[in-house]
Every structure is written in C-alpha cells, then in structure tokens.
Amino acid sequence: MADIVLNTGDTAWVLASTALVLLMTPGLALFYGGMVRAKSVLNMMLMSMVTIGIVSVLWVIYGFKLAFGYEANSQWYGEISLSGLGSAVNELTNNGGVYPIPLLAFAAFQLMFAIITPALISGAIADRTKFTAWAVFVTIWVTIVYFPVAHWVFAFGNKVGDTVTGAGFLAARGVQDFAGGTAVHINAGAAGLALAIVLGKRVGWRRESMRPHSMPLVLIGAGLLWFGWFGFNAGSALGANGVAALAMLNTQVATAAAALGWLLVEKIRDGHPTSLGVAFRCGSRISCNHTSMCICCSMGSGSHWIIRWHILRTSCWT
C-alpha cells in the first residue's frame, strides 16, 4: 500500500458519484410518490426518505464492517463489530487490491447503495403499511439481509501481496456487479415480492381507482434516477478511467433504447404511447455496463418487449 498514493482525480470522481447515487433516493421518492393516489403521496415519499437516515446511522456503526470487513475471513459476512470508520481517515481502499482513493470515500459510495436498496422495496407495498412498521422493517432487513449480501457481491477481500482474505461468496468467483443487479435489485425485488404476498392486495383494489395522481412527479423522479445512474454505474469503476467511461455511455444508450422500445410497444399494442411507460423504463434502466454499445442497445430495447407484453397479457399490476 505504501507504493500507491492518493489519486485526486479518481477520488473526485468517486465523491461526485456518491452524491449522484444519493440523489437517486429522493428521485425514487418522487417516482413512487407520483404513482400512488393523492392521499398516500406523503407516506410513500417519506418511506423512501427515512431510509437515508436509518441506513446511514447503521452503516457507520456496524454496517460497513459487516459488509466489507475481512477479519472473519468468511464468504458470507464481513465482521460482526463496530465499523471503526473514525480511525480510517488516512487509509486507502483495499478491495481485492489497493485503489488510490480514501477508504472513507469508498465507504460513503457503498453507503448510497445500501440506502436505495430498501427504498426500492417500498413501492411493492404502497398503501399497505404504517410508517413506523416500515422503519422497523428497514432496520432489521438491512442488518440481516442487505449487509451480508453486499459482502457476497461487492467485497473482493483484503489483498496483501498475492493473498486475499475475506472475499465474498460471489465476488471470490469473479462476479462483477456495477449496477447492483444482484445485491440491490434482485435482493430488493425478492423482499418486495415477499412483503406483497404477506400483506396482500391494496384495500379497494379493482373497486376503486388506483391511477397515478401526478405524472409530472413521476417524470421528474425518473429523470433524477436516470441522472443518478451515471454515478451508480460509472462510479463503480472506482476511478476516472476507461471502464467508467464505458459504463457511463452504456447506461445512457441502454436507457434510451429501452425508453424508445417501450414507447413503440405501447404504440403498437394500445395505439398511443404513455408517459408512465417511458418513465418506468427510464427509472428502471438496464444493467449492461461491460458490453459493447450495440449489444447494450439490443438489451435495452429487447428486455422491455418481454416485460411489457407480460404485464399487458397477465394484468399483474396490484
């Protein structure tokens, strides 16, 4: 580590990416808030916003160590102890190798992933839970689910010489997840499905109108999510380099192709495109950060056809 010095350019990009990813959670609050009925908008938005407070505090107390600690040398969790970030001011990041960025910058960047993951779950239980119950759920869920799973995927271990200790289950097998498709999206999706099954359908479903109360809010939220994705994906390179540039361009191209493809399907199927459809595709995006741009376009435009036709054919919105 003594041979590697702090790189101010890489550090600046990771810090900027951290801010971009944090912006996604307020964007998600607007995105979800606009899609619910007017009576539920404040509760829906606050469910996203409170995750910022809860997860931030848990992260600096023990979450970072549970996700990225290596002392236990376990592939399932980091270390069960206090994070100790207060004494890490002058340390560089060591995650499968030493990066010329401060450990605190890496910890802050990964914190934003931990914040938005439970916030994503909230959309699956709109109108179906009390705020206090949600806060308790977030506290428990990030502790016993997200922090360990983040270790599986994002913790590449502490590397000293040729020896790596404490790498996560998937990370040790070469998995690279820039867009959080595993620890963030699959994880949140599984939790959202489980909660929706347990809590059941909304009261008044199919008897009362469930139309979005404010499409402008949805579109603003989608725009903020699109903007934040650049930090989410390109920032995962942990440096201002060619990998970050490829991830950034693929993020833009995949999202644009997906939005256009969704509009085309709606035009063919329904006779007209909708703002909710394009907002949904812009907000959800496609994970294809290491592929070529042509493949990225195909993934972006192709995946929406499957999703869109399934939704229309099964009428699965609840």
Please give a quick description of this structure:
With 318 residues, the chain is mainly alpha-helical.
Question: What is the strand and helix layout of this fold?
Answer:
Blueprint: H1 8-35, H2 41-68, E1 92-94, E2 98-102, H3 103-121, H4 131-154, E3 158-160, E4 163-165, H5 181-199, H6 215-234, H7 242-270, H8 275-284, H9 293-314
Antiparallel strand pairs: 1-2, 3-4
Describe this structure in words.
With 318 residues, the chain is mainly alpha-helical. It has 2 domains: 8-214, Ammonium transporter fold (Orthogonal Bundle), CATH 1.10.3430.10; 241-318, no CATH class. It is 63% helix and 4% strand. It has 9 helices and 4 strands. The protein has a two-stranded antiparallel ribbon. A hairpin with a 3-residue loop joins strand 1 (92-94) and strand 2. Helix 2 crosses helix 3 (103-121). The longest helix has 29 residues, at 242-270. The radius of gyration is 20 Å and the shape is globular. It starts with 7 loop residues before the first helix and ends with a helix.
CATH level-4 homologous superfamily of the largest domain? Ammonium transporter AmtB like domains
Low-confidence stretches: 293-318
Number of helices: 9
Distance between the termini: 52 Å
CATH topology of the largest domain: Ammonium transporter fold
The dominant shape is: globular
